């Protein structure tokens, strides 16, 4: 949808210009898979701090790119810094040498590049290939994926049946050679030995006891040291079967061999036999079950081999064993945001630490944890967040297993080709940059690897202290946000070469990953941007990407809200916005009416207005689990999807013409139109009061009202199109004006007319709220921006 610039003089013209520059940035993204908050950088540390907003890159490592060739050979690295040969390297054809643009080292081409000349270039030197995929030989060849289903049986019979049905459907979507295992849990944990066909055989672990991975392996007869040790002993081991992996054929079987036994086990799965008394919650040992499943995966599979997902299906909070989030007595309510703020959540700290240690173990093994939380109450997702986020896991949150969101989300993970998520595994991302830039850290679904480098900044943001991160699992839209620090200063004599180098800087992202088909790839993305003298505001503005900056600020905010005690989010956002407007706005001091922002920045305040009202900042009316879920999804999606979460898109359908983008404002509601709101987590189809009455009167079924019937159908078809291919699958809300479900739309709209505003009445919809409107917000911003500092 087109975004409109409000509160700036000459709004419409500004918007067109802003849309043009934003289109340029998204064109670059389509070629490189990277969006930068600033595309022109000031060349000194002092000028960088005056820019207020962070210097960061949104990197989508596995994005489908326009021009990205796949070449059947390995990359040529620089012998000094490790950066790979790219179009920006200076090449000496007669001498068969190339100069690395990052460290200026002269490198000899390898022997097989002897035929290189200006008319005979390898693909990586073509100027239009910013990104290139290399094929890397994998020892032992492609390996089948592995799935361990961890199923909670402390739910009602009806819920469990629906869950079993969904799992049986999922098995039908798996490839024949996929390895499958089953762990069920309630009061105790049961590991099912699928390879034992004489009768149903399972190994039981006590739910309330800590389970050490080595002990679990020993008890299951999979004794060969812990996963971490095995990685140290022979990291390249990737041979399936044989004595190296005693658990294959017993607990993990290829689907073609184990499908019958597994289906039989699932169909005969019953609710946990330890029934809870009426005044107590069920004894549910979720943490212990995940510990056992992690140990099982570690003992059966070699790190770096199969792409392994541990998929947890949970229907309530953990109450016994490690990772418990609430007492069994129902008199004790599960923690709320207020309890967390007041430090009255006795289980929170300990459970979070437990899941952090589990995350460390999973990352070491290279395995992923997915969670399908289907319960009316919270299940402890906020505590599980580290283990899900650091392993790149998928999360779906629904009210019950009957909910369409759960069924569709589960299907979506296993779909292949065009419709599927095409999930890759065993990813690492390494960053290289020019000498005046340092890497501060990263916010996203990854875990830091301990690689010390001169490029590491002292200021850390998110996961810092390194330039390499591991992504156990990544889809086409998985996006990391990498933060940079500008450390240059102008002092010292400058020779001609230094002057030349001072015009532009370079960045390179090296992404290693294994595709869904099991092929090992390395994608190298190299990009260049320009330095400018920090005082040149127009140059900086020309390269400002307001969409990417809004998303980067939202991620930084989420990370700060989780990590810092007593952090006031709205105040932090407001101060940054005021300082930015004071620095880049055009105005006369103390004259708010003269204030104007250039088109490249004019929509940014509107993004901030919506971010302040969003579920990422306002935790009121959301549980800690929901907030954790929203933030997890925000911190792994690409720029476009994240922007939809921050500022939803609204489309209006009426008899007056084709569908058109509408302002995200209460004034867009009309009795004779239908609105389609895409807020990422919900898709709302909202019928104006007249349309709703006609629909109730069944006008659409009469042949003479074919146009009305079509008008009702079109938004529903468009909504289905939005929902298709999105993960997590959004909730579809079909509602009427003045109906109870209309709240999903009203909560997102700018309250330009409220019950106490002077313009109320006049037939328009009125929102019952004390929130300020965008107009009031902009007026205050102008006043504060023009005040003398």
Q: Key terms for this structure?
A:
about 800 residues; alpha+beta; eight-stranded mixed beta sheet; 22 helices; 30 strands; about 20% strand; globular; disordered N terminus
How many runs of DSSP E, i.e. beta strands? 30
Per DSSP, what share of the residues sits in E-state strands of 2 or more residues?
Answer: 15-25%
Number of helices: 22
| Backbone CA Rg | 28 Å
The unreliable regions are: 1-16, 225-243
Class from helix and strand fractions: alpha+beta
Give helix % range.
25-40%
Q: Can you give a write-up of this model?
A:
There is one protein chain. Residues 1-16 and 225-243 have low confidence and may be disordered. This protein is globular. 31% of the residues lie in helices and 21% in strands. With 789 residues, the chain is an alpha+beta fold.
Short description, anyone?
This protein is of the alpha+beta class and 789 residues long. It has 22 helices and 30 strands.
Please render the helix and strand layout as text.
Elements: H1 11-32, E1 34-36, E2 40-42, H2 45-50, E3 55-59, E4 70-71, E5 90-92, E6 97-99, E7 106-108, E8 131-136, E9 146-152, H3 157-173, E10 179-185, E11 188-192, E12 202-206, H4 213-219, H5 227-233, E13 253-254, H6 255-267, H7 286-300, E14 308-314, H8 337-341, H9 348-365, E15 368-374, H10 381-390, E16 395-398, H11 404-414, E17 424-433, E18 437-443, E19 447-448, E20 468-474, E21 480-486, H12 496-501, E22 504-514, E23 520-532, H13 537-542, H14 546-563, H15 569-584, E24 586-588, E25 591-596, H16 604-613, H17 624-634, H18 639-646, E26 649-654, E27 657-661, E28 674-678, E29 682-687, H19 689-696, H20 706-723, E30 731-736, H21 743-746, H22 774-785
Parallel strand pairs: 2-23, 4-8, 9-10, 9-14, 14-15, 15-16, 29-30
Antiparallel strand pairs: 1-3, 3-21, 5-6, 6-7, 8-23, 10-11, 10-13, 11-12, 17-20, 17-22, 18-21, 19-20, 22-23, 24-25, 26-27, 26-28, 28-29
Helix pairs in contact: 3-6, 3-11, 4-7, 7-9, 9-10, 10-17, 14-16, 14-18, 15-22
